[in-house]
Design goal:
With 105 residues, the protein is of the alpha+beta class. Helix content is 38%, strand content 23%. The mean pLDDT is 88. Bound molecules: adenosine-5'-triphosphate (ATP) and magnesium ion. Keywords: Membrane, Transmembrane, Transmembrane helix. This is ABC transporter B family member 7.
Amino acid sequence: MTGGISLGQTSPCVNVFAAGEAAAYKMFEVIEQKPKIDAYDDRGIVLEDIRDEIELKDVYFTYPARPEVQIFSGFTLHVLSGKTAALVGQRGSGKSNVMILKLEK
Ligand SMILES: Nc1ncnc2c1ncn2[C@@H]1O[C@H](COP(=O)(O)OP(=O)(O)OP(=O)(O)O)[C@@H](O)[C@H]1O
Ligand SMILES: [Mg+2]
């Protein structure tokens, strides 16, 4: 009788197991995706020494596609070679653009 009661108590959990299985299926689908870019591919140009200073002096910058959005207005930054610096700012304030400007130089 005790066994029967215990079995009865498991029935509400069956739905939860089914929901978990469905969620896991979606998750494994994402994990098993093969990306077009292989992050572990070691072909291509390997830069030997990328030590350099970063210097931006009074930079004014907008994207041609969105001239109404001023990304930088008079932005100045100097990071010495070998030093670590952190750029802090709200989302969309232009932190990643600092690296793009540096790489395009
Ligand atoms: N290719 C592009 N064309 C037009 N506008 C762009 C382009 N790339 C970025 N932007 C705009 O430039 C601004 C700064 O973007 P950026 O990615 O440098 O910000 P961020 O500080 O790195 O933001 P996050 O904290 O989200 O990484 C944003 O308003 C963004 O929409
Ligand atoms: Mg960014």
